[in-house]
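Q: What structure does this chain adopt?
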Amino acid sequence: MTVFLAVIITVCIMIKILKSEKKEQKALEDAKVVETRMQYSAICEINSGNLPIIKVDNLNYLPNEKCHYLDNAVYSTTTSSTAYHKFYNGTYTKGGYRSGISTTYPVTTYKENMHKGTLVVTNERIIFINDKYSLCIPLCRVVSFTPDTNKIVVYSGNRIDSIYVPNGFTVYNLLNNICKERNK
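A:
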């Protein structure tokens, strides 16, 4: 009887995990369709090793800060939640009380949240702007960054930030160009 209950609970948990994975897959597919609003000439300049200067009006600039990239983006955050399930290994008494040993085990689920907004890269910071969510990563704290066809992953300290952009290699080239310029 207890093995049967354990199998039923496991099947229910697996169905819940599969449903959440389908939702995450749909969210990832939505993030892959980020359209660019940046001019083709600026993208060509970045890919050729230059740093174009883009004027952004509503940005609070730091001293000697220049904007080099402005485009649509989707920022990905992951949240986790843990639920504790109790399993009784025993029987019910006549009064409706459970007798026997109970076991509690945790089940952790992870959910990826997608925030649509704008990515701004300056010679000092990487900024993601959204109505409800914003992110600012100073370039002095960036340890490394890796490109993909449609995203850039930024490693800064103990944080890993995934930002979906129209072309991850363009942002990667821009960050490399900024690093070379800063090291001169």
